[in-house]
Amino acid sequence: MGYYLSDYLVNMEYQVWGTYRSGYGIKPDLAPIDARVEKVVRLEFHEGHLAEQIISAFQPHEIYCLEPVNIEDQIHPDDEGHFAGYDGFIRKLLFFIAQIEPRPAFLHALPELLYGMPDLLPLDEGSCFSEESDWIQPLLKGYRLVKEYRERYHLHAVNCILFGPFSPFQPETAFPRFITAGLCRFATGDQEFLETDDLSVKRDCGSVRDYVRGVCKSVCNTPANDYILATGVSASGEIFIFHAASYLGMTIRFFEGNDGKRRGFLIDIDVSLFTERVGREFLSFVESRLIDPEVHDFLCADKAVVRPVRRGNDHPIFLVGDYSRAKTLLGWTPEYHFTDVLEEMMAADLSRLIPRDVSLLKNE
Fold this sequence. Notes:
The protein has 364 residues and is of the alpha/beta class. It contains 13 helices and 14 strands. It has helices at residues 2-11, 31-34, 48-58, 71-74, 86-98, 137-152, 177-187, 208-220, 237-247, 271-277, 283-288, 324-330, 338-353, and strands at 16-20, 37-42, 62-65, 105-111, 157-162, 165-166, 194-196, 202-204, 206-207, 227-229, 234-236, 250-256, 262-269, 299-301. Helix 2 (31-34) links the parallel strand 1 (16-20) and strand 2. Helix 7 crosses helix 13 and helix 9 crosses helix 13. The protein is elongated and about 70 Å long.
Protein backbone atom coordinates (compact mmCIF):
# COMPACT_ATOMS: atom_id res chain seq x y z
CA MET A 1 0.00 0.00 0.00
CA GLY A 2 2.94 2.31 0.66
CA TYR A 3 3.82 2.31 -3.05
CA TYR A 4 0.37 3.56 -4.05
CA LEU A 5 0.27 6.09 -1.22
CA SER A 6 3.69 7.48 -2.16
CA ASP A 7 2.69 7.75 -5.80
CA TYR A 8 -0.56 9.51 -4.89
CA LEU A 9 1.14 12.00 -2.57
CA VAL A 10 3.94 12.74 -5.03
CA ASN A 11 1.37 13.46 -7.73
CA MET A 12 -0.34 15.81 -5.26
CA GLU A 13 3.02 17.66 -5.08
CA TYR A 14 3.90 16.45 -1.60
CA GLN A 15 7.51 15.97 -0.59
CA VAL A 16 7.46 12.34 0.49
CA TRP A 17 9.90 10.68 2.87
CA GLY A 18 9.64 6.90 2.86
CA THR A 19 11.18 4.16 4.98
CA TYR A 20 12.88 0.96 3.94
CA ARG A 21 11.30 -2.17 5.38
CA SER A 22 11.31 -5.89 4.72
CA GLY A 23 8.59 -6.19 2.08
CA TYR A 24 6.21 -9.03 1.35
CA GLY A 25 5.01 -10.33 -1.97
CA ILE A 26 5.89 -8.85 -5.34
CA LYS A 27 8.18 -5.84 -5.45
CA PRO A 28 6.60 -3.07 -7.53
CA ASP A 29 8.59 -1.19 -10.11
CA LEU A 30 9.54 1.91 -8.16
CA ALA A 31 11.18 3.64 -11.11
CA PRO A 32 8.24 6.03 -11.78
CA ILE A 33 8.37 7.45 -8.25
CA ASP A 34 11.75 6.41 -6.89
CA ALA A 35 13.47 9.61 -7.89
CA ARG A 36 10.79 11.67 -6.19
CA VAL A 37 10.57 9.77 -2.88
CA GLU A 38 13.35 10.17 -0.36
CA LYS A 39 14.28 6.86 1.28
CA VAL A 40 15.32 7.13 4.92
CA VAL A 41 16.12 3.92 6.81
CA ARG A 42 14.68 0.49 7.26
CA LEU A 43 12.12 0.86 10.05
CA GLU A 44 10.11 -1.77 11.90
CA PHE A 45 7.52 -1.03 14.57
CA HIS A 46 9.79 -2.16 17.41
CA GLU A 47 12.32 0.55 16.51
CA GLY A 48 10.49 3.48 18.06
CA HIS A 49 13.68 5.43 18.71
CA LEU A 50 14.34 5.59 14.97
CA ALA A 51 10.84 6.95 14.40
CA GLU A 52 11.55 9.75 16.85
CA GLN A 53 14.83 10.56 15.12
CA ILE A 54 13.14 10.65 11.71
CA ILE A 55 10.35 12.92 12.94
CA SER A 56 12.83 15.27 14.60
CA ALA A 57 15.04 15.43 11.52
CA PHE A 58 12.39 15.93 8.84
CA GLN A 59 9.47 17.51 10.75
CA PRO A 60 6.75 15.95 8.60
CA HIS A 61 3.26 17.40 8.32
CA GLU A 62 1.67 13.94 8.08
CA ILE A 63 2.68 10.48 9.30
CA TYR A 64 1.08 7.31 7.88
CA CYS A 65 1.34 4.05 9.81
CA LEU A 66 0.32 1.24 7.41
CA GLU A 67 1.97 -1.83 8.96
CA PRO A 68 -1.17 -3.54 10.38
CA VAL A 69 -2.97 -3.43 7.01
CA ASN A 70 -0.50 -6.00 5.67
CA ILE A 71 -1.30 -8.58 8.34
CA GLU A 72 -2.93 -11.12 6.04
CA ASP A 73 0.04 -10.81 3.71
CA GLN A 74 2.46 -11.63 6.50
CA ILE A 75 1.28 -14.17 9.02
CA HIS A 76 -1.15 -16.83 9.97
CA PRO A 77 -3.57 -15.31 12.50
CA ASP A 78 -2.49 -17.94 15.03
CA ASP A 79 1.00 -16.40 15.05
CA GLU A 80 0.23 -14.56 18.25
CA GLY A 81 3.65 -13.03 18.72
CA HIS A 82 3.93 -11.18 15.43
CA PHE A 83 2.55 -7.87 16.74
CA ALA A 84 3.89 -8.19 20.27
CA GLY A 85 5.05 -4.73 21.30
CA TYR A 86 3.11 -2.95 18.58
CA ASP A 87 0.95 -1.03 21.06
CA GLY A 88 4.09 0.10 22.88
CA PHE A 89 5.44 1.49 19.61
CA ILE A 90 2.21 3.41 18.96
CA ARG A 91 2.15 4.78 22.52
CA LYS A 92 5.76 5.96 22.28
CA LEU A 93 5.19 7.50 18.87
CA LEU A 94 2.04 9.37 19.91
CA PHE A 95 3.65 10.56 23.14
CA PHE A 96 6.58 11.97 21.15
CA ILE A 97 4.27 13.69 18.66
CA ALA A 98 2.34 15.27 21.54
CA GLN A 99 5.54 16.94 22.83
CA ILE A 100 6.63 18.70 19.65
CA GLU A 101 5.49 21.74 17.69
CA PRO A 102 4.15 21.85 15.12
CA ARG A 103 2.43 18.55 15.62
CA PRO A 104 2.13 16.34 12.54
CA ALA A 105 -1.15 14.65 11.68
CA PHE A 106 -1.12 10.89 12.30
CA LEU A 107 -2.94 8.23 10.25
CA HIS A 108 -3.26 4.73 11.72
CA ALA A 109 -4.49 2.15 9.20
CA LEU A 110 -5.96 -1.15 10.40
CA PRO A 111 -7.38 -4.30 8.76
CA GLU A 112 -11.05 -5.31 8.80
CA LEU A 113 -10.00 -8.68 10.24
CA LEU A 114 -10.12 -7.03 13.68
CA TYR A 115 -13.86 -7.65 13.62
CA GLY A 116 -13.48 -11.44 13.55
CA MET A 117 -16.94 -12.94 13.11
CA PRO A 118 -19.42 -10.09 13.75
CA ASP A 119 -23.04 -10.57 14.74
CA LEU A 120 -24.43 -7.46 13.04
CA LEU A 121 -23.75 -6.22 9.52
CA PRO A 122 -22.79 -3.94 7.91
CA LEU A 123 -19.93 -2.89 10.16
CA ASP A 124 -19.53 0.77 11.02
CA GLU A 125 -17.33 2.82 13.35
CA GLY A 126 -19.45 1.80 16.34
CA SER A 127 -19.28 -1.96 15.75
CA CYS A 128 -17.56 -4.15 18.32
CA PHE A 129 -14.17 -5.70 17.62
CA SER A 130 -13.24 -9.29 18.27
CA GLU A 131 -11.46 -9.73 21.61
CA GLU A 132 -10.78 -13.46 21.45
CA SER A 133 -7.58 -13.72 19.41
CA ASP A 134 -4.36 -12.77 21.19
CA TRP A 135 -2.76 -11.43 18.01
CA ILE A 136 -5.53 -8.82 17.78
CA GLN A 137 -4.89 -7.30 21.21
CA PRO A 138 -1.84 -5.12 20.37
CA LEU A 139 -3.67 -3.71 17.33
CA LEU A 140 -6.79 -2.93 19.34
CA LYS A 141 -4.67 -1.22 21.99
CA GLY A 142 -3.06 0.82 19.23
CA TYR A 143 -6.51 1.78 17.93
CA ARG A 144 -7.62 2.89 21.40
CA LEU A 145 -4.40 4.79 22.02
CA VAL A 146 -5.02 6.88 18.91
CA LYS A 147 -8.48 7.79 20.21
CA GLU A 148 -7.09 8.51 23.68
CA TYR A 149 -4.34 10.83 22.46
CA ARG A 150 -6.75 12.58 20.11
CA GLU A 151 -9.16 13.31 22.95
CA ARG A 152 -6.70 13.93 25.79
CA TYR A 153 -3.86 15.71 23.97
CA HIS A 154 -5.86 17.05 21.01
CA LEU A 155 -3.67 15.35 18.44
CA HIS A 156 -4.88 15.22 14.88
CA ALA A 157 -4.86 11.41 14.96
CA VAL A 158 -7.08 9.21 12.79
CA ASN A 159 -7.90 5.50 12.71
CA CYS A 160 -8.87 4.11 9.30
CA ILE A 161 -10.15 0.53 9.03
CA LEU A 162 -9.66 -0.73 5.50
CA PHE A 163 -11.76 -3.55 4.06
CA GLY A 164 -9.49 -5.50 1.75
CA PRO A 165 -7.07 -3.04 0.09
CA PHE A 166 -6.12 -5.47 -2.69
CA SER A 167 -3.47 -4.99 -5.37
CA PRO A 168 -1.31 -7.03 -7.78
CA PHE A 169 1.64 -6.70 -5.37
CA GLN A 170 0.18 -8.95 -2.67
CA PRO A 171 2.04 -12.18 -1.91
CA GLU A 172 0.48 -15.38 -3.23
CA THR A 173 -0.52 -16.49 0.27
CA ALA A 174 -2.94 -13.57 0.60
CA PHE A 175 -6.57 -13.42 -0.53
CA PRO A 176 -7.41 -13.02 -3.38
CA ARG A 177 -3.93 -13.22 -4.95
CA PHE A 178 -3.66 -16.97 -4.36
CA ILE A 179 -6.75 -17.24 -6.59
CA THR A 180 -5.48 -15.07 -9.45
CA ALA A 181 -1.95 -16.50 -9.40
CA GLY A 182 -3.23 -20.08 -9.21
CA LEU A 183 -5.69 -19.64 -12.07
CA CYS A 184 -3.02 -18.08 -14.29
CA ARG A 185 -0.61 -20.93 -13.61
CA PHE A 186 -3.39 -23.41 -14.38
CA ALA A 187 -4.16 -21.63 -17.66
CA THR A 188 -0.50 -21.77 -18.72
CA GLY A 189 -0.10 -25.42 -17.73
CA ASP A 190 2.26 -24.68 -14.82
CA GLN A 191 -0.17 -25.97 -12.18
CA GLU A 192 -2.69 -28.78 -12.42
CA PHE A 193 -4.57 -28.34 -9.17
CA LEU A 194 -5.57 -25.39 -7.01
CA GLU A 195 -6.23 -25.96 -3.32
CA THR A 196 -7.88 -23.06 -1.59
CA ASP A 197 -9.57 -22.27 1.69
CA ASP A 198 -13.25 -22.12 2.62
CA LEU A 199 -14.98 -20.61 -0.43
CA SER A 200 -18.05 -19.65 1.58
CA VAL A 201 -16.04 -16.90 3.29
CA LYS A 202 -17.41 -13.52 2.15
CA ARG A 203 -15.27 -10.43 2.07
CA ASP A 204 -15.80 -6.77 1.30
CA CYS A 205 -13.03 -6.20 -1.21
CA GLY A 206 -11.85 -2.81 -2.37
CA SER A 207 -9.02 -1.36 -4.42
CA VAL A 208 -5.92 0.02 -2.75
CA ARG A 209 -6.24 3.05 -5.05
CA ASP A 210 -9.62 3.94 -3.56
CA TYR A 211 -8.30 3.52 -0.05
CA VAL A 212 -5.26 5.69 -0.65
CA ARG A 213 -7.63 8.51 -1.66
CA GLY A 214 -9.65 7.82 1.48
CA VAL A 215 -6.79 7.85 3.98
CA CYS A 216 -5.44 11.08 2.50
CA LYS A 217 -8.85 12.72 2.76
CA SER A 218 -9.29 11.46 6.33
CA VAL A 219 -5.95 12.73 7.60
CA CYS A 220 -6.63 16.18 6.13
CA ASN A 221 -10.20 16.52 7.40
CA THR A 222 -10.94 18.61 10.50
CA PRO A 223 -11.83 17.67 13.18
CA ALA A 224 -10.01 14.33 13.29
CA ASN A 225 -12.22 11.25 13.42
CA ASP A 226 -12.20 7.51 12.82
CA TYR A 227 -13.39 6.05 9.52
CA ILE A 228 -14.26 2.82 7.79
CA LEU A 229 -13.26 2.58 4.14
CA ALA A 230 -15.14 -0.19 2.36
CA THR A 231 -17.20 -0.87 -0.75
CA GLY A 232 -20.38 -2.04 1.00
CA VAL A 233 -20.39 -5.12 -1.26
CA SER A 234 -19.19 -8.56 -0.22
CA ALA A 235 -18.44 -11.61 -2.36
CA SER A 236 -17.59 -15.22 -1.61
CA GLY A 237 -14.47 -17.03 -2.73
CA GLU A 238 -16.53 -18.87 -5.34
CA ILE A 239 -17.63 -15.56 -6.87
CA PHE A 240 -14.04 -14.37 -6.97
CA ILE A 241 -12.90 -17.55 -8.72
CA PHE A 242 -15.81 -17.44 -11.18
CA HIS A 243 -15.04 -13.85 -12.25
CA ALA A 244 -11.27 -14.38 -12.33
CA ALA A 245 -11.66 -17.49 -14.50
CA SER A 246 -14.10 -15.64 -16.76
CA TYR A 247 -11.39 -13.09 -17.46
CA LEU A 248 -9.43 -15.93 -19.11
CA GLY A 249 -12.48 -17.23 -20.98
CA MET A 250 -12.96 -20.19 -18.62
CA THR A 251 -16.31 -21.10 -17.06
CA ILE A 252 -16.13 -22.74 -13.65
CA ARG A 253 -18.89 -24.54 -11.76
CA PHE A 254 -18.78 -25.70 -8.16
CA PHE A 255 -20.23 -28.87 -6.67
CA GLU A 256 -20.25 -30.50 -3.27
CA GLY A 257 -18.14 -33.66 -3.24
CA ASN A 258 -18.88 -36.85 -1.35
CA ASP A 259 -16.16 -35.85 1.08
CA GLY A 260 -18.02 -32.62 1.89
CA LYS A 261 -15.48 -30.43 0.11
CA ARG A 262 -16.46 -27.93 -2.57
CA ARG A 263 -14.82 -28.73 -5.89
CA GLY A 264 -14.44 -26.60 -8.99
CA PHE A 265 -14.81 -27.98 -12.51
CA LEU A 266 -13.97 -26.42 -15.84
CA ILE A 267 -17.12 -26.80 -17.96
CA ASP A 268 -16.51 -24.45 -20.91
CA ILE A 269 -13.81 -22.38 -22.62
CA ASP A 270 -14.22 -19.29 -24.77
CA VAL A 271 -11.47 -20.20 -27.22
CA SER A 272 -11.27 -16.76 -28.77
CA LEU A 273 -10.92 -14.94 -25.44
CA PHE A 274 -8.51 -17.53 -24.01
CA THR A 275 -6.32 -17.31 -27.12
CA GLU A 276 -6.29 -13.51 -26.96
CA ARG A 277 -5.39 -13.24 -23.29
CA VAL A 278 -3.35 -16.37 -22.62
CA GLY A 279 -2.24 -17.80 -25.95
CA ARG A 280 -3.17 -20.60 -28.33
CA GLU A 281 -0.09 -22.57 -27.33
CA PHE A 282 -1.65 -23.15 -23.89
CA LEU A 283 -5.10 -24.13 -25.16
CA SER A 284 -4.55 -27.88 -25.52
CA PHE A 285 -3.75 -28.39 -21.84
CA VAL A 286 -6.84 -26.51 -20.67
CA GLU A 287 -9.06 -28.26 -23.20
CA SER A 288 -7.84 -31.62 -21.90
CA ARG A 289 -9.46 -30.81 -18.56
CA LEU A 290 -12.85 -30.70 -20.30
CA ILE A 291 -12.74 -34.36 -21.32
CA ASP A 292 -14.20 -35.74 -18.10
CA PRO A 293 -15.07 -32.99 -15.61
CA GLU A 294 -16.10 -35.51 -12.94
CA VAL A 295 -12.52 -36.74 -12.92
CA HIS A 296 -10.68 -33.61 -13.92
CA ASP A 297 -11.63 -31.24 -11.14
CA PHE A 298 -8.88 -28.67 -10.74
CA LEU A 299 -9.95 -26.91 -7.58
CA CYS A 300 -10.67 -28.17 -4.09
CA ALA A 301 -11.83 -26.02 -1.18
CA ASP A 302 -10.50 -27.47 2.06
CA LYS A 303 -11.06 -25.93 5.48
CA ALA A 304 -7.75 -27.45 6.55
CA VAL A 305 -5.95 -24.67 4.67
CA VAL A 306 -8.12 -21.85 6.04
CA ARG A 307 -6.24 -18.77 7.29
CA PRO A 308 -8.98 -16.28 8.22
CA VAL A 309 -9.82 -15.19 11.73
CA ARG A 310 -12.60 -17.12 13.44
CA ARG A 311 -14.33 -16.97 16.78
CA GLY A 312 -13.92 -20.56 17.81
CA ASN A 313 -16.89 -21.83 15.79
CA ASP A 314 -17.29 -23.36 12.37
CA HIS A 315 -19.15 -20.49 10.71
CA PRO A 316 -17.51 -18.66 7.82
CA ILE A 317 -16.49 -15.06 7.97
CA PHE A 318 -18.93 -12.60 6.47
CA LEU A 319 -17.53 -9.08 6.47
CA VAL A 320 -19.04 -6.02 4.85
CA GLY A 321 -18.38 -2.40 5.80
CA ASP A 322 -20.52 0.71 5.98
CA TYR A 323 -18.60 3.75 4.69
CA SER A 324 -21.43 6.23 5.36
CA ARG A 325 -19.31 8.42 7.66
CA ALA A 326 -16.53 8.70 5.07
CA LYS A 327 -19.10 9.54 2.40
CA THR A 328 -20.78 12.20 4.55
CA LEU A 329 -17.72 13.86 6.11
CA LEU A 330 -15.07 13.28 3.45
CA GLY A 331 -17.08 13.03 0.26
CA TRP A 332 -15.35 9.68 -0.34
CA THR A 333 -16.94 6.83 -2.26
CA PRO A 334 -15.23 3.82 -3.88
CA GLU A 335 -14.69 4.08 -7.63
CA TYR A 336 -13.52 0.51 -8.29
CA HIS A 337 -15.63 -2.67 -8.17
CA PHE A 338 -14.00 -5.88 -6.98
CA THR A 339 -14.14 -7.19 -10.56
CA ASP A 340 -11.94 -4.26 -11.62
CA VAL A 341 -9.38 -5.28 -8.99
CA LEU A 342 -9.51 -8.91 -10.12
CA GLU A 343 -8.92 -7.97 -13.76
CA GLU A 344 -5.90 -5.88 -12.81
CA MET A 345 -4.50 -8.73 -10.71
CA MET A 346 -5.14 -11.32 -13.44
CA ALA A 347 -3.43 -9.13 -16.04
CA ALA A 348 -0.42 -8.64 -13.76
CA ASP A 349 -0.11 -12.35 -12.94
CA LEU A 350 -0.36 -13.29 -16.60
CA SER A 351 2.37 -10.79 -17.49
CA ARG A 352 4.67 -12.41 -14.94
CA LEU A 353 4.15 -15.83 -16.50
CA ILE A 354 3.97 -14.66 -20.12
CA PRO A 355 5.95 -11.40 -20.44
CA ARG A 356 4.08 -8.94 -22.60
CA ASP A 357 2.50 -5.51 -22.48
CA VAL A 358 0.05 -5.65 -19.57
CA SER A 359 -2.07 -2.94 -21.18
CA LEU A 360 -2.96 -5.40 -23.93
CA LEU A 361 -4.49 -7.75 -21.37
CA LYS A 362 -6.72 -5.26 -19.60
CA ASN A 363 -10.26 -4.43 -20.53
CA GLU A 364 -10.42 -0.95 -21.96
